[in-house]
Amino acid sequence: MKIIIAGAGAMGSRFGLMLHQAKNDVILIDGWQEHIDTIKEYGLQANFNGEEVTEMIPIYHQSDISSVEFSADLVILFTKAMQLDGMMQSIKNMVGEKTKVLCLLNGIGHEDVIKKYVPLSNILLGNTMWTAGLEGPGKAKLFGNGSIDLQNLGNEGKESADEVIAVLNDAKLNAKYSDNILSSIYKKACVNGTMNGLCTILDSNMADFGETDVADVIVESIVSEFAQVAEKENATLDIDAVLAQIKSCYNRETIGLHHPSMYQDLMINNRLTEIDFINGAIVRKGEVYGIETPYCSFLTQLVHAKEQIMKAK
C-alpha cells in the first residue's frame, strides 16, 4: 500500500518505520527541517525495544511536496491539531477519490477539517495507545506495545476499513474496528483536558497537582462538561472510570512525575498549544448544544494568555 505519514514526529516515526518494515511504500512529510535533513542523510534511526535499527525512508518538507509524484492509498495524520488544515492543503494533490485518511490526533472535532478535503466515507477516525519519543532529530525511541481502535465515518462501516486494518495489522500495529470510536476519543480527551492544561498553567507535574486540596473538584467539573457534550454526540462516558483513569496519573511510582505534552510544548519548547482542540473544542460544541462550559472556557483562556505572555510560536 502507498502510505503518507503526515507529521513525522515521534508517533509518525513509529508508524512510518513499522509500515515500511512491512514492505509498504511509505513517505514521511514533516515541517522540522533538521529532522528531515538527518533522516535524508542517515535514515530514520530508532531504539526499537532495545534494538538499534535504521531505515531509509523518503521524507519531504511540507512546503516542498507540490512537485512530488505520489498517489496515496492511505494518509495517516499525526500533525499538531493547529497544523492539520495546512497539511491537508499541502497534500491534496496526492489524495485521490479512493484515498483513505486515518486521523490519530489528540483532541476532538478534527473530522470537521478533514471533510473539507475528502468525503466522510474515506475518513477513518482513530484512537491509539501506542507511545513513542524522539531523542533528537532523526532518532526515535520506541518501546512497549500498543493498539489502534478506528471507525469509518461514512455509511459503509467496517467493510470500508477492512483493508486499512489488514495493512496495519500486517505491520503489527494491532488495529481493530470500533462501532463507537467517539467514546474512546472522549475518554482520552478527558485526560488531556484536565492534565494538560492544568499542569501547564500551574507549572506542575501531575502528582503535585493531584495532591492539592482542590484537584478533585476541578477535575470533576471539567469532566462533567466533557461528558455533557459527549452525550449530545452519542458518545457514552463512564464518568467513574474516567475519573479513576485521571487520578491514576497522580501516582508518583508510575507516571505522576511526568509533565504532559502541552506543558512540554509551551513551558519547555515555547510552542503554541493544542488547547483549542481539547478544552476549546468543548467550549465551541457547548455553544452549539446550549451547554455551559465555564471551566473549559476559563482554562482555554488562561492557556492562551500564557502563550501570549511567553510569546510562544
UniProtKB/TrEMBL annotation:
<dbReference type="InterPro" id="IPR003710">
    <property type="entry name" value="ApbA"/>
</dbReference>
<dbReference type="GO" id="GO:0050661">
    <property type="term" value="F:NADP binding"/>
</dbReference>
<dbReference type="GO" id="GO:0005737">
    <property type="term" value="C:cytoplasm"/>
</dbReference>
<feature type="domain" description="Ketopantoate reductase C-terminal">
    <location>
        <begin position="180"/>
        <end position="307"/>
    </location>
</feature>
<dbReference type="Pfam" id="PF08546">
    <property type="entry name" value="ApbA_C"/>
</dbReference>
<comment type="function">
    <text>Catalyzes the NADPH-dependent reduction of ketopantoate into pantoic acid.</text>
</comment>
<dbReference type="InterPro" id="IPR008927">
    <property type="entry name" value="6-PGluconate_DH-like_C_sf"/>
</dbReference>
<dbReference type="GO" id="GO:0015940">
    <property type="term" value="P:pantothenate biosynthetic process"/>
</dbReference>
<feature type="domain" description="Ketopantoate reductase N-terminal">
    <location>
        <begin position="3"/>
        <end position="153"/>
    </location>
</feature>
<keyword id="KW-0521">NADP</keyword>
<dbReference type="InterPro" id="IPR050838">
    <property type="entry name" value="Ketopantoate_reductase"/>
</dbReference>
<dbReference type="GO" id="GO:0008677">
    <property type="term" value="F:2-dehydropantoate 2-reductase activity"/>
</dbReference>
<dbReference type="InterPro" id="IPR013332">
    <property type="entry name" value="KPR_N"/>
</dbReference>
<protein>
    <recommendedName>
        <fullName>2-dehydropantoate 2-reductase</fullName>
        <ecNumber>1.1.1.169</ecNumber>
    </recommendedName>
</protein>
<comment type="similarity">
    <text>Belongs to the ketopantoate reductase family.</text>
</comment>
<keyword id="KW-0560">Oxidoreductase</keyword>
<dbReference type="InterPro" id="IPR013752">
    <property type="entry name" value="KPA_reductase"/>
</dbReference>
<dbReference type="InterPro" id="IPR013328">
    <property type="entry name" value="6PGD_dom2"/>
</dbReference>
<comment type="pathway">
    <text>Cofactor biosynthesis; (R)-pantothenate biosynthesis; (R)-pantoate from 3-methyl-2-oxobutanoate: step 2/2.</text>
</comment>
<dbReference type="Pfam" id="PF02558">
    <property type="entry name" value="ApbA"/>
</dbReference>
<keyword id="KW-0566">Pantothenate biosynthesis</keyword>
<dbReference type="InterPro" id="IPR036291">
    <property type="entry name" value="NAD(P)-bd_dom_sf"/>
</dbReference>
